[in-house]
Design a protein that fits this description.
Helix content is 5%, strand content 50%. By secondary structure, it is mainly β.
Length: 432
C-alpha cells in the first residue's frame, strides 16, 4: 500500500472513531416522575399511600418507592414499598398501593420518594404531607382493685381499641408485679365489652397480703398492649375457721323407731356442712339431716366448712332410740295446743322462662308462714349430692315464694312444722 493510501485509510478510521464517540448516548439527566393518588390514614396506626411513578431512562421498567413517616416527636421510620408493579390504565406496571403500619399517632409527616433507577440522577420526592393518625393501641382506665374475700381480687375499669370498636377488648391482670416480673401470678383474663367496661373477679394461688396489681388492655390489630394502671391492695387471707353449727331441732330422747331428724344452722354465709352418724365417717349433708336408726344410744356430729376449705369445730348430739316410744306432740304455735301431724305438699316449679324458682306449700294458712330449705345438686368427688344453698319462708295466704337462683337442678325440703310432716319437692331445673 502506498503512503498516500495509508494516509487515506487513517483518515477514514479517524472519522469513524469520531462518529463512534459522538453517537454514544450521553449519561441520563432525567429524574423519576410520578404522582400520589391517595395518602391518608384508614384506621388507627395505619397509613395508606397509592399512586404511580417511573424513570424515563427505563420507561418500561419498575422503580422502588420509599416512604418515610416522621412522628410528632421528630422520630422517623422508613418503609420500602419495593418495585412499582401495579398495572395502570395505560397498561404499564407503574402503580403502587400499600397500607403501612406505623408506631406513631397524631399529626405525622409522610414523605414519598421515587428512587432513581439509572445513573446518578437525584431521587424524586413525590409528596410531603401531614396526615392525622389515630392511636392504634388500646386505651382505657383502671377504676378500682379490691379483695372482697380469701385470695380473691376484683378489678374494674374501661378499655377500648380504636382499631375495631365493635370487638371486645381482652384484659389481663397480674398480681405481684408486671407481666415480666419473676414470680408474678397471671394473666387472669377478663373482657371489656364494646362501649362498656370490665368487671371480673379471680382467685390467686399463692399471693396474699399487700400486693401490687397490674392491669393491661390486650391489643388487637395494629399496635401493642397497653398498661391501664396499677393499684396496691391487701389480698385477704382467711385463716379463721367457721364457728360450730347450732342445733335448731333435735329428736326427743328417747326417740321412737323410724326416721330421726336433726336440724342445724351455721352463722357464716356460704358454709357447707358434713355430718357423722355414730362415727361412721364424715359425709356432705344439709339441714335437716334424717336417718333411720336401730334401738340404742346414738351419736350425731356436724361441722361447718367455709368456702376457703377451713373446717370448724364439731357440734355433738347424743340421744336414745327406744322402739315404741311415742313421738312428741306437735303443738300449734297459734293456739298452743297439740295437733295431729298432717301431710304437707311442697311444690317447686320453674317460672319466668325457667329462670326463677316458685315454691308453694299446702295446706295454706293465713296465720303462719312455712320455713323451707332450697338444695342444689352438685358433684363432689365424682358423686352427685344435695347442697343447701338457701333458707327462706313462704309469704301470704297462698304460701308461695319466688326465688332468683342460678342455673342448676334444685329441690325444696320442708321440715316438719306447724303440725305438718316433713315433705320434699320434685327436682326442678333452672335455665338462665
Amino acid at each position: 500500500m502506498t503512503r498516500a493510501a495509508r494516509r487515506g485509510l487513517s483518515a477514514v478510521v479517524l472519522v469513524l472513531a469520531v462518529l463512534t464517540v459522538v453517537t454514544t448516548p450521553p449519561a441520563s439527566a432525567v429524574q423519576p416522575r410520578g404522582t400520589i393518588d391517595v395518602l391518608g390514614s384508614p384506621a388507627g396506626g395505619l397509613v395508606r399511600v397509592a399512586g404511580w411513578a417511573y424513570d424515563p431512562d427505563v420507561p418500561e421498567g419498575s422503580i422502588s418507592i420509599h416512604v418515610y413517616v416522621t412522628g410528632p416527636d421528630g422520630q422517623q421510620e422508613g418503609h420500602n414499598l419495593g418495585p412499582t408493579t401495579g398495572v395502570r390504565p395505560d397498561g404499564t406496571r407503574r402503580g403502587f398501593d400499600a397500607t403501612l403500619e406505623t408506631r406513631f399517632s397524631g399529626d405525622v409527616t409522610v414523605d414519598v420518594w421515587a428512587i432513581n433507577a439509572v445513573g446518578d440522577d437525584p431521587h424524586t420526592r413525590l409528596t410531603s404531607r401531614v396526615v392525622s393518625v389515630a392511636t392504634p393501641h388500646p386505651t382505657g382506665t383502671l377504676t378500682s382493685v379490691e379483695s372482697p374475700a380469701h385470695r380473691t381480687v376484683r378489678v374494674r375499669g374501661t378499655a377500648q381499641d380504636a382499631s375495631d370498636l365493635t370487638r371486645p377488648v381482652t384484659v389481663h391482670a397480674y398480681v405481684g408485679g408486671g407481666w415480666d416480673t419473676p414470680g408474678v401470678e397471671g394473666p387472669f383474663v377478663g373482657n371489656a365489652e364494646p362501649g362498656g367496661g370490665f368487671d371480673f373477679t379471680f382467685q390467686t394461688v399463692t399471693k396474699a397480703g399487700d400486693q401490687e396489681v397490674f392491669v393491661y388492655a390486650v391489643n388487637h390489630g395494629t399496635g401493642w398492649d397497653q398498661l391501664l394502671g396499677t393499684r396496691r391492695t391487701n389480698v385477704v387471707l382467711d385463716t379463721t375457721p367457721p364457728v360450730a353449727p347450732r342445733i335448731t331441732g333435735a329428736p326427743p330422747s328417747p326417740a321412737g323407731s323410724g326416721p330421726v331428724q336433726v336440724s342445724f344452722a351455721g352463722d357464716e354465709p356460704g358454709v357447707r356442712f358434713e355430718c357423722n352418724w355414730n362415727r361412721a365417717g364424715w359425709q356432705a349433708c344439709a339441714s335437716p339431716a334424717s336417718r333411720t336408726l336401730d334401738q340404742g344410744v346414738h351419736r350425731f356430729e356436724v361441722r361447718a366448712i367455709d368456702p376457703v376449705g377451713l373446717v370448724g369445730p364439731t357440734t355433738e348430739l347424743r340421744f336414745e332410740v327406744v322402739p315404741g316410744a311415742a313421738p312428741p306432740p306437735v303443738v300449734d304455735p297459734v293456739i298452743g295446743l297439740p295437733v295431729a301431724p298432717a301431710e304437707a305438699v311442697v311444690a317447686a316449679t320453674a317460672v319466668r322462662r325457667k329462670s326463677r324458682l316458685r315454691v308453694r306449700v299446702q295446706p295454706a294458712s293465713a296465720a303462719v308462714d312455712y320455713a323451707f330449705v332450697v338444695q342444689r345438686q352438685v358433684r363432689r368427688k365424682g358423686r352427685k349430692v344435695w347442697k343447701q344453698v338457701k333458707r327462706s319462708t313462704t309469704r301470704g295466704p297462698a304460701e308461695s315464694r319466688v326465688l332468683d337462683l342460678r342455673r342448676g337442678r334444685y329441690r325444696v325440703v320442708l321440715p316438719a312444722q306447724h303440725g305438718v310432716a316433713e315433705a320434699v319437692s320434685r327436682v326442678v331445673r333452672l335455665r338462665r
